[in-house]
Structures are given as C-alpha cells and as structure tokens.
Write a structure and sequence with these properties.
alpha+beta, 6-stranded mixed β-sheet, 5-stranded mixed β-sheet, 2 helices, 11 strands, 15% helix
Length: 177
C-alpha cells in the first residue's frame, strides 16, 4: 500500500529546464508525453517550438526557457513534454486551455507541506509566474503558476495562432462533393 500524503499537503511536478529545477501544481499537469513529431510553422512566435495534434486538438509546444529568459538548448530526441492546463479552473476538455511545455527532464511528483512552501515576490519573475518555492535535498525549486506563464497578449496571440492552424487542418479533412 502506498502512503497518501497528509490532506494539507500539495503535490507538485518537478522538472528541469536549462539546468533550473521548476515545479507546477500537479493538478495543472494533465499528462507527460514523449516528444512527438512537431510541425514548425514559419508564422509561429519564437517561443513556440512547434505544434502537434493531440486527440484532434492542435497543441502548441512552448520553450519555457525562452519565455523565462533561460538559455535555450537543443531539443533531445527523448525530451519530455508536460501537457498543461494553462489556467486553473478551466473546464475539463477545453482544448484552448492546453499547451505543452518542453522540459529537459521530469524528476517526479513531490508532496510539499504548506509550511515548507516559501513565498515569492511576483515582481521578481516574468508576469509574476513564480508564485513560491520549496527546498529539497538538491536545493530550491521555484513553483510556477500555469495561468501566469504567458501575458494576456501572448495568450490572445497563441489562441489566434491555434485557431488559424485548426482552420487550416480542417480544410484537409473536409470532404468534397
């Protein structure tokens, strides 16, 4: 039997990007995926590594390193993706809330007691996306808010990009009389 964490404990997915260890609330991460073949479109913004279709939905893959101002490294063949709900509280299955983050490595799920969660000054991170931190045996892990990874403008542009790509792809699946 696996011991469940105490009810007051929150769990976080810990992953690495450009050598920095970061975390997202476990409820925001829908899946870990192996890197699929990505379509790279010339009109995509620079932080968009590409897109793939997941269960019929166009999902953009973002280089979080580029968004956070970390060194951008080449993508390895086995680079994992974190399929993430962009904003907490979105209805299940609302595709426009999904995006994939390219990670260097996924370390696992870590329970964190409320008293071990350190506050963060939102002014010290891009768009206030770092909302806390915790320490483990390897050092400090920054906790990110999935809803603050992109600004409102970036979110609007990404949604427009996704909608345009979905329209383009639907043209290929339409039957002609």
């Amino acid at each position: 039997m696996i011991d469940a964490p105490p009810p007051s404990t929150t769990s976080h997915v810990v992953f690495s990007i450009a050598g920095d260890r970061l975390a997202l609330p476990v409820g925001a991460v829908r899946r870990f995926l192996p890197l699929p073949r990505l379509d790279r479109l010339p009109t995509a913004p620079a932080p968009v590594e590409g897109i793939f279709v997941y269960h019929g939905t166009v999902v953009p893959v973002l280089r979080l390193a580029a968004i956070l101002g970390l060194p951008v490294r080449d993508v390895g063949l086995y680079a994992p993706l974190l399929l993430v709900e962009r904003a907490e509280g979105r209805a299940e299955g609302r595709a426009e809330g999904m995006l994939a983050l390219l990670a260097g490595r996924v370390h696992g799920v870590v329970p964190v007691a409320p008293e071990d969660l350190l506050p963060a000054d939102p002014a010290l991170s891009f768009n206030g996306c770092a909302v806390g931190a915790f320490r483990d045996a390897l050092g400090t892990v920054a906790v990110l808010s999935p809803g603050r990874l992109l600004t409102e403008t970036e979110t609007s542009l990404l949604d427009a990009f996704r909608a345009a790509e979905e329209r383009r792809l639907s043209g290929w699946s339409a039957t002609t009389p």
